[in-house]
Amino acid sequence: MKALVLGGSYFIGRALVETLVSEGFEVWILNRGTRKSTSDLGVRQLVADRHNYESLDTALKGRYFDVVYDLSGYDEGDVEKTSLLLRENVNHYIFLSSIAVCKQPPLTWPITEEHEKCSKVTDNEYGFNKWQAEKHLFAKSESGWFNTTTIRPTYVYGPRNYDSRESYIFRRIMAGLPIVIKGSGDNIVQLGYVYDLAQALQKVACDKRSYATSFNVSGRELPTVKEIIRTVEEITGRDAQTICVHDHPDLTQEVCGFPAVDRYAEVAKIEKVLRIVPTRDILSGMTETYRYLVEHGM
Predict the structure, then answer these.
(1) Residues 6 or more apart in contact with residue 61 via CB below 8 angstroms
(2) Which label site among 23, 43, 154, 280 has the fewest CB atoms less than 10 Å from its CB?
(3) Superfamily of domain 158-190+221-262+280-296 in the CATH hierarchy
(4) Which pTM does this prediction carry?
């Protein structure tokens, strides 16, 4: 199967490309060519700026793909260009979205795929823009351009994560420094391991049961921030000191990237429809993340 990955150079992109290659896909990546983190995987590179229509047109003209994974699209303008150029040259368009498309906090927990969406920028700019991109792709799918699936992760963690969330906790605890959190730490923050997300993305490809559908994707566990920190304590064998930034208004230290409120979603739909389940629990995923950080630097 021939796959195009828009983005594909780091973190989720790297994990996805590794997974696709291991499953025998012929993989092409399209980005600006500024990062070379997948050059060791034998994939083919297309260099283009997705915000420039002419650049995209030159790179994509005359090429057909069974599936395209859009990891770098953030708003309707981004997907408008790519969908127009790929409308007759791709079977399945898989868009990496986010549970942020749903209004938060929701009226009921957990967040499902059907929850009320962000209807304006002030609801959540990132979520609103992702939702507008989703709606554009589903509309083009209804017009017969291609089949569309959108994937909505919660918080993704693992090797090469450029967001300082779990790496922040590991760094602080190993340095004997306090972990500064935004709230009490009793709020639920659902985590999904990056290679489980990559596996889900791979399995969705050209599966007719996924067409015209959205899926929440994450781990099954619902830990609190304090429980995540306790997991890091167990892995490192170190005790953590935790303080709340709101209790210390003059604090100038770096703050953990996890929120002060609940963030979790229902992930039963993808398990029921496609039989896709995560393979790592938080302890095993965090242990693999720690090994990567030790080897490559925190």
Answers:
(1) 85
(2) 23
(3) UDP-galactose 4-epimerase, domain 1 (3.90.25.10)
(4) 0.96
